[in-house]
Amino acid sequence: MSQQVPVIVLREDTERTRGRDAQRNNIMAAIVIAEAVKSALGPKGMDKMLVDSFGDITVSNDGATILKEMDVAHPAAKMVIEVAKTVDAEVGDGTTTAAILTGDLLKQAETLLDQKIHPTTIISGYRKAAAKALEVIDEVSETVDPTAPDYKKILIDVAKTSMSSKFVSTHKDTLAKLVVDAVLAIAKDVPKDEELDIDNIPRQKQVGMRVEQTELVKGLVLDKEIIHVGMPKKIEGAKIALIESALEVSKTEFDAKISITDPSAMQGFLDEEERMLKSMVEKIVEAGANVVIAQKGIDDVVQHYLAKEGIMAVRRIKKSDVERVHETTGAAIVSKIQNLTAADLGKAKIIEQRDVGDDKMLFIEGTPKSSVVTILVRGGTDHIVDEVDRALNDGLYVVRDVVMHPQITYGGGALAAEISKQLRDYAATLEGREQYAVNAFADAVESIPNTLADNAGLDPIDVIVNLRKAHTEGKVYHGIDYTKGKVGDMKAARIVEAAIVNRQVVMSAAEAAQMILKIDDVISSRGSPGMGGGPDGGGDFGDDE
Question: Is 150 found in the same domain as 137?
Answer without folding.
Answer: no
